[in-house]
């Protein structure tokens, strides 16, 4: 019957809606939008600075993402031009966001993958380095993800000395990520600057390192039956 097909359509496009309250400053909203569908503002990209990235930094778990739709601004909806005008006119914006939760198809494909295990939580540990003893950290890092420092290699220096004195679970390896430097996180360029400064002034460095996820528990050992 016709009912089954319409039901499938609603399932395929399940969405959530939430409201974000923004204060627009000099950098503007900090998003790139498209209104080709004539009803919503589709968020194509989120810039580094602006009201939306500011909101994202302060509201973990309620971040606005590229691919979301702005469906209302201060009560104005279904009219992208009017919503944009509202964004330009007002400094305080209440924005209603809609996010598609992925289609039914994608979910069924996921469940067909063999040995799909729940994702293991990454393992975090703290590395304390006294830079007065070593003039060199000995880490080669990159920050493509824009949030953490990815350890490309470990060379001779303070980290190697640390590794010699600590168990494997607390050693820094290639492929680990430095998540925070002396409590400072989410800004890799600033983290690198801090490392350089503290190395030069020979102070203590505290690195929060994210290692690979803990391996999943293996199968239980086979029981040997005694005759």
TrEMBL record:
Gene3D superfamilies: 2.30.42.10
Domain PDZ: start-end pairs: 19-78, 126-213
Highest taxon in the source lineage: Eukaryota
InterPro entries to which the protein is assigned, alphabetical: PDZ, PDZ_sf
Protein name (record): PDZ domain-containing protein
Organism in which the protein naturally occurs: Noctiluca scintillans (Sea sparkle)
Lineage: Eukaryota, Sar, Alveolata, Dinophyceae, Noctilucales
């Amino acid at each position: 019957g016709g009912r089954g097909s319409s039901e499938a359509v609603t399932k395929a496009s399940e969405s959530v809606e939430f409201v974000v309250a923004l204060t627009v400053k000099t950098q503007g909203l900090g998003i790139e939008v498209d209104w080709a569908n004539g009803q919503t503002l589709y968020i194509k990209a989120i810039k580094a600075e602006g009201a939306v990235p500011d909101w994202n930094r302060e509201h973990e778990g309620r971040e606005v993402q590229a691919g979301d739709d702005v469906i209302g601004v201060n009560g104005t909806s279904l009219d992208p031009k009017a919503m944009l005008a509202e964004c330009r006119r007002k400094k305080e914006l209440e924005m209603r966001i809609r996010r598609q939760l992925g289609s039914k198809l994608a979910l069924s494909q996921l469940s067909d993958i063999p040995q799909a295990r729940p994702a293991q939580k990454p393992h975090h540990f703290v590395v304390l380095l006294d830079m007065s003893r070593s003039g060199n950290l000995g880490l080669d890092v990159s920050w493509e993800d824009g949030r953490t420092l990815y350890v490309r290699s470990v060379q001779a220096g303070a980290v190697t000395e640390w590794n010699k004195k600590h168990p494997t679970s607390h050693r820094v390896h290639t492929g680990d990520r430095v998540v925070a430097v002396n409590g400072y996180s989410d800004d890799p360029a600033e983290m690198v600057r801090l490392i350089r400064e503290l190395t030069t002034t020979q102070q203590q460095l505290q690195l929060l390192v994210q290692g690979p996820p803990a391996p999943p528990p293996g199968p239980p050992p086979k029981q040997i039956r005694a005759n």
